[in-house]
Amino acid sequence: MWQQSAEQGRFLRAWYSAPLDEFVGEGREAIFGKLARHSEFDVQRTQGDAWHDQIEILQSALTGLQGRILLEFSIPRMGRRVDAIVLTGAVVFVIEFKVGAERHDRAAIEQVWDYALDLKNFHAASHRLPIVPVLVSTAAPNQPFQLRSAPDGVHQPVLVGSQGLRQIVNAALAGIDAGAIDVHAWEHSAYLPTPTIVEAARALYGQHRVHEIMRTGADRFGREVTSGRIEQLIDQARERNRKLICFVTGVPGAGKTLIGLNVATRRQRPQSTANSIFLSGNGPLVDVLREALALDQVERSAALGKPTRKSDARRSVKAFIQNVHHFRDASLREAGPPAERIAIFDEAQRAWTQKKTADFMKRRKDVHNFAQSEPEFLISCMDRFPDWAVIVCLVGGGQEINTGEAGIDAWLEALRRRFPHWEMHVSPHLYDREYQRTDELARALQGPNCVLEEALHLAVSMRSFRAEHLSHFVKAMLDKEVDLARQQLALIAAKYPICITRNLAGARDWIRTQARGSERFGLVCSSKALRLKPHAIDVRHNINPVHWFLNARDDTRASFYLEDAATEFQVQGLELDWACVTWDADLRATAGGWNFHDFKGKRWENVKQPDRQRFLLNAYRVLLTRARQGMAIVVPPGDARDHTRNPGWYDGTYNYLRSLGLQEL
Questions:
Q1: How far apart are the first and last CA of the chain?
Q2: Which of 88, 144, 221, 318 is the most exposed place for a label (fewest CB within 10 A)?
Q3: Quick one: DSSP state of residue 606?
């Protein structure tokens, strides 16, 4: 968490900052005292010993140099602090210590690399500067090194022992001559992070605020404005004893889930009568976030010297993030109001229709003749409060991917018919065609309790910090708006590489070479892509999203292995850094538009129902907007000997994508 200095009255990025000559001449105990004073937790003996060793090594290695040093520099997106940043000459040195380590652990190498990449991507003054990450494992022997820089100026991590740091600094300064860094401008430069949803959840759960982890140059109605408006509406509902529902819209990756998590964490108070809960029908998202937060809580507790069992951490997180269907079932058993007055429903348009809900309820022995849609029942649960309650519906456009999803009309119809006393605050972008509304919105707006608010719309995607408008390209591509798709691709191509190939092995190799540090990559495909099996991709193998999204490189269940493909159902709402999107013959580009197919038995069958066609198109929309930094699209060549993989079915799609300007790998 960014710490506020009583002396300066402002947030500190670093717990210690000084010119190099001042740092070298200052007493170690004085430096230690400044670090300890700004520390957000009680300094344990092990941390104190580590700081003393680090200070000694740094003072010895930096003697005679000009520049500035910053110790314990905050990387809020990652919820961590860099041990040391050294600005000297034209180079930014990112230094991480592993005191007592006899070898250079792979996780530590990735950690310091991640810090360097974070500065390059999100710290404005570092965008054009060379950055050299250095891992100092104090008990490890020095190794021969060679400075290797990527095109963006971030070097591969250099590995040294306790005596090798000055040699690295000298070599970098001798080989990089681009003028001295303006250290004052660097230290006060804007830091504009764009976290993944897992990173954001960890930071918010650790009591960061949304503006600390999410500062972008997005449009005027950005995430801070939307989050702040929801907070105001909650306060108004409580003060006026009103029941209120608001509908928040946004393009794919705009941060709707982040907004919901921010509101939920800020309204979590012990013994409070106005607590909140974050609800989602997206099972994989719930499972991944819960496990990530539990693991993070265990790690934080250990760092504070207060070990927590993983089972206890999981139990704590479970009360904060729940599957919406479990919340529904608990409300069926209990007649009273829920424990929380504020309910945030993620992807609210995916709540079940009356038919699907009723069909499901028939399996239960304790429920008879259930005749409500899921939105109607969920509103009725919150309506049990005698005074005030708030529902926040986070609505995604073009995200419906399964049968039985009610869309936003079910919410609007239930409010109009059964709950007209609820006050409605609605994003005007519910009018947009991707939200699949009919006449219900117009009816709702005729009522006295409905207000349109532009502040409830998020217009800019944050999923890809390299290409804010990736979603616009994908939308134009799937809408077959060729000229617009070419224009959008031209806008993002320089920062966001998208390549196309017929060779899956080549795409895997390309993805592996693009990723640095702990950047996550994975293989994704449509759940209808049943004829990728000859390429060793079997979508019928049900992956565990927790292992796929959270496990390390050495785990065959992790996405890094590029073996198990995740489908739209497992990745919706979550992100990768790099994606390998493999395209089957279920969705085929033709001169007349898209052809939709489902593989049954031994052949492909035409999909004629408009809803099922829309689900398939949306499945590819989800897959094509998962990656933050770039992707490879693989359209296999087919096989003339196999009647289920006619090359012509694949050639049409490949040629269409190439016609938009995508580059062949």
A1: 42
A2: 144
A3: E
Tokens found for residue 604:
């492909």
Q: At what angle do helices 374-382 and 324-333 cross, to 10 degrees?
A: 60
CATH number of the domain bearing residue 94: 3.40.1350
CA 530, CA 401: separation in Å to the nearest integer?
17
Would 510 be classed as within a structural domain?
Answer: yes
What's the total number of domains in the chain?
3
Question: What residues form DSSP beta bridges with 603?
Answer: 600
Whether residues 366 and 489 fall in one domain? no
Whether residue 525 is found in the same domain as residue 408: no
DSSP 636: -
- The domain in which residue 31 lies consists of 3-187
On whether both 76 and 219 belong to a single domain, the answer is no
**Cα–Cα distance for residue pair 416/431, rounded to 1 Å:** 17
CATH number of the domain encompassing residue 591: 3.40.50
Q: For 141-193, what is each residue's pLDDT tens digit? A: 887 888 999 999 999 999 999 999 999 999 999 988 767 899 999 998 888 77
Report d(CA 148, CA 87) in Å as an integer.
Answer: 19
Compute CA distances 439 → 210, 244, 405, 410, 430, whole Å. 35, 21, 18, 11, 11
pTM, rounded to two decimals? 0.84
Residues 486 and 590 placed together within one structural domain of the fold: yes
Nearest to 401 by CA among 651, 624, 650: 624
305 and 404 both lie in a single domain: yes
Rg (CA), the chain: 27
Query: Alpha-carbon distance 609 to 435, whole Å?
Result: 18
For 342-352, the pLDDT digits (tens) are 999 998 888 88
Domain boundary among 391, 423, 458: 458
Question: Could you tell me if 97 and 41 lie in one domain?
Answer: yes
Cα–Cα distance measured from residue 427 to residue 396, given in angstroms and rounded to the nearest whole number: 12
**CA 633 to CA 654: how far, in whole Å?**
9
In this structure, are residues 382 and 337 in contact, taking their beta carbons and an 8 Å threshold?
yes
Parallel/antiparallel/unpaired status of strands 576-582 and 521-525: parallel
How far is the C-alpha of 388 from the C-alpha of 180, rounded, in Å? 59
Residue linked to tokens 């001295």: 180
- Give the model confidence (pLDDT) of 353-379 as tens digits: 888 888 888 877 777 778 899 999 999
- As a whole number of angstroms, the distance between CA 233 and CA 246 comes to 8
Model pLDDT for residues 23-74, shown as the tens digit of each residue: 999 998 999 888 888 776 555 666 777 889 999 999 999 999 999 999 999 8
Residue closest to 230 by CA, chosen among 269, 276, 281, 194: 276
